[in-house]
Amino acid sequence: MMRAAVLVSGGGTNLQALLDAQKAGQIPGVEFVLVISNRKQAYALERARLAGIEGVYLPTVRYENREEYHMALRDLLLDHHIDVILLAGFLVVLGKPVMEAFAGRILNIHPSLIPSFCGDGFYGLKVHEEVLRRGVKVTGATVHFVDEGTDTGPIILQKAVDVAQDDTPETLQKRVMEQAEWVIFPKAVALFAAGRLKIENGRVRILEEE
Hints:
It is a single chain. By secondary structure, the protein is an alpha/beta fold. The protein has helices at about 15-25, 45-50, 65-80, 95-100, 125-135, 170-195; strands at about 1-5, 30-35, 55, 85, 105-110, 140-145, 155-160, 195-200, 205. The protein has one domain (about 1-125, about 145-160, about 180-205): Formyl transferase, N-terminal domain (Rossmann fold), CATH 3.40.50.170. The chain is about 35% helix and about 25% strand. It has a seven-stranded mixed β-sheet, with helices on one face. Strand 4, helix 4 (about 95-100) and strand 5 (about 105-110) form a beta-alpha-beta unit. Pathway: Purine metabolism; IMP biosynthesis via de novo pathway; N(2)-formyl-N(1)-(5-phospho-D-ribosyl)glycinamide from N(1)-(5-phospho-D-ribosyl)glycinamide (10-formyl THF route): step 1/1. Its EC number is 2.1.2.2.
């Protein structure tokens, strides 16, 4: 059984989507054992409690510098024998200690079709605000492996979502979550757990089922 940790800073809607998918039998071979948040009031921690999963509040202000924080985060993950890290709206850029310990085992969900509207400063509602400001007609979500850059790792899955003429950032965010994020994130985790994701020349190839 693959042991997964979900890192999240906010409400945890993608965490809930993962838990619901697991309950429905869509993510076999994965056990969600740890939820970590850098925000004490993150509702994701309550979702973890309701699901019987250990939730840990790990604030950056507890440590003198970024390096110490990421060493503590790495050690926490290692102590729980985590096999895969899932970033579900975690607004802390992972440092070298975590990246080295879990290379090739970190997946992130991003609310746009990478390489559009991604990178530094593009997170949460800000992504959808910029989509509408630019007049884009199609947006979506992306699941990708995490590397040293911001939203630059190999893409695993993407799903497009139409932008409505009367959309607000809030209505667009909701549609992208419902139609894309909550669909492709569980699917990508299931593919990873089944050993069906292979990185070749910086790109992800999805292997056929055996």
